[in-house]
Amino acid sequence: MKRTHSVALLIETSNSYARGVLEGIAKYVRLHERWSIYLPEQERGGQPPAWLSEWKGDGIIARVETDKIAAILRNTGLPIVDVSAARHLPDIPWVETNDEAIAQMAAEHLMERGFQNFAFCGDPSFNWSNWRKQYFAQIIKNEGRQYFELDSVSQNSSEYSWSVEQNELVKWLKKLPRPVGIFACFDIKARALLDACRELEIAVPEEVAVLGVDNDHLLCELADPPLSSVRCNASRAGFEAAHLLDRMMAGESVNPNALLIEPIGVETRQSTDILAIDDPEIAHAVSFIRKNAYSGINVNDVLQEIPISRRAMEHRFQKLLGRTPHQEIIRLKIDRVKNLLTETELSLFEIANCAGFQHEEYLSVAFKKAVGIPPSQYRRQHSNL
Asked: Could you tell me the residue range of the domain that residue 300 belongs to?
C-alpha cells in the first residue's frame, strides 16, 4: 500500500488568491493522492512556524515571501514548490500568475470601452505588481494612447497608513486627464482608488473607470461602486503546484523555471461598465452587440438597429475600437465560450447554443482561429473545475 505523504502548506488564508491556491491543492489531493496536510495559521510574509525547522515531513508548498522563511525552508532539505512571485529561492520550482497575460487582458478590457487615457496604480514591493505595470505600460504605449502611472506607498512599508495612501491617491487622481481607465495592481489597491474617487466626488465609471485583479468577490461586491476585476486561476496554480511537488516527492527532477498560469477573464461590474466613446451611433451599436451577441446576430442586424451605411459603421468602429462590428461579435462569443469551457462541464454542443453559434463545428473552427488551439485543449489547460 502506498505510503501517505506528510505535506506542509505555508500559505495564508487571508486573501482570495491564496485561498484559491489551497482549493486547487485540495482538488489535486482528492483526485490523485492521499496526503497528511499541515496547514498552520499563517499571515502573508509572517514568521515561519516554530516547528518547521524540526519537522520530519515529505514536502512543502509555500508562499516564500521573506529571506528568513526562505533560509529555514532551504535548511529542511525537503522538496519545495514556491507559489510566490518574490523569488527568495530562485533555484526551486515555482508557480505564479502570468502577469503579461493579466496586463493584456486588463488593457483590452479598458480599450474595449473606448478610453484614450490609461493609468496604472501599483505597489512597488511586489514583483507581480511591477511586472503588471511594465507589461501594461508597453501595451498602452504601443497603441499610441496616453499613459500615466503611480507606485503608491507600499503596504509593506513602515510608513504605510490608510490616510497616507489616500492622500497620495487623491493628489494623483486630481492630475489625471478624464475620462481615464485605471488598472490597479490588485483588488485592495483598486478599492483604495474608489475611496479616493468618492472623496473627490469623481463619477465612477463615467470619469474614472477602475479595474482590479484577483476577483475577490467579497471585496469587489462591497466596493462602491462594485469593482470589476481580472479573474486569476488560483485554483489551477494550486493544482499544478501540488502536481509538481508530487513528482518531486517521487524522486523526479523538476525544472525550476516558472510555471505561469493564464488568467480566466474579466468579471465586469459597475466600476468599468461604460463606453467612453464620443460617437452616439457607434456607442449604441456596441451596446446593441453586447446585449445580443449570444443570440446569433450578425452585422445586418446591427445595421437595422443603427441606420447608417455598412462602410461608415465599419470605418468608425475601426477608428474608435480598432476592429469591425463582425470582429466585435465574434470576440464576445469567443470570450463566452472560454468562460463556459473553464467554468462548466457543458458539452461543446451546449456551449455552441449558449454562445450563439449555429453549429459546434463552426464554433470549433472560429475558436481555433481566434485562440490558436481547439476548445478541448483549452478546457484541459484552463479548467477551473
From this structure: 280-382
